[in-house]
Write a structure and sequence with these properties.
This protein has about 190 residues and is of the alpha+beta class. The chain has one domain: Immunoglobulin-like (Sandwich), CATH 2.60.40. About 20% of the residues lie in helices and about 25% in strands. The protein contains 3 helices and 10 strands, in the order αβββββαβββββα. It has a 6-stranded mixed β-sheet, with no helix packed on it. A 4-stranded antiparallel β-sheet has the order 4-3-7-8, with no helix packed on it. The longest helix is centred in the C-terminal third of the chain and has 22 residues. The termini are far apart.
Length: about 190
């Protein structure tokens, strides 16, 4: 009985930051292409054992009202979370970029706008007023900053999943145009050499 009372006292006195949960994750990077079919949210933490995401909600709020909600269906696969990221992205992400998101969000989950806010379980919020939709740049949520409107723009999106796989994103159409252009240049050179 005494051991139980001591354990309970230790838990009550422990710092919330020392207890494992999911409250120390920050929204680090947010991305959307122009039509919303490719989107991601990358999270970052310096906290230990922040793996218990089951039931935590990610919400897009417009003027304070939730319009899109995603509930994390499971916990992260490992207990070591210090200085790690995890990725919530659309299902086509692995096909387009070769890395598997840790969680799948629906297309068009995110939308930019002056009154649009991305809320992670009430623990972190980021304004989507300046969310780029050009297929290359992303919004930086400035981890360890609790002011939702203080964001910056990344010149290129660089999402990373919990396994540490990272990619630099060009717009898929841009990659195709570049590939076709390079093919046309090569064909012209072959004709000139004949």
């Amino acid at each position: 009985m005494r051991t139980t009372a001591v354990s309970a006292a230790v838990l009550l006195l422990a710092s919330p930051a020392a207890l494992p949960f999911a409250h120390l994750w920050d929204i680090q990077e947010v991305y959307s292409n122009a039509n919303g079919t490719v989107q991601f949210v990358e999270f970052f933490t310096t906290g230990f054992s922040e793996l218990f995401l089951t039931g935590v909600q990610l919400q897009l709020k417009v003027s304070g009202t939730p319009v899109n909600s995603f509930t994390f269906p499971s916990d992260l696969p490992g207990t070591t979370t210090e200085n790690r990221t995890f990725l919530a992205a659309t299902a086509n992400f692995v096909t387009l970029y070769g890395i598997t998101p840790d969680y799948i969000i629906p297309p068009n989950f995110l939308s930019g706008g002056a009154n649009n806010l991305l809320d992670y379980g009430g623990f972190d919020q980021v304004s989507l007023a300046n969310l780029p939709a050009n297929g290359v740049m992303s919004l930086n949520g400035l981890p360890d900053n609790d002011v939702p409107d203080e964001t910056s723009i990344n010149a290129q999106a660089t999402p990373r999943n919990f396994a540490g796989q990272q990619v630099t994103i060009p717009e898929p159409a841009t990659s195709i145009v570049l590939f076709v252009s390079l093919g046309a240049v090569a064909a012209r050179r072959r004709r000139q050499l004949r």
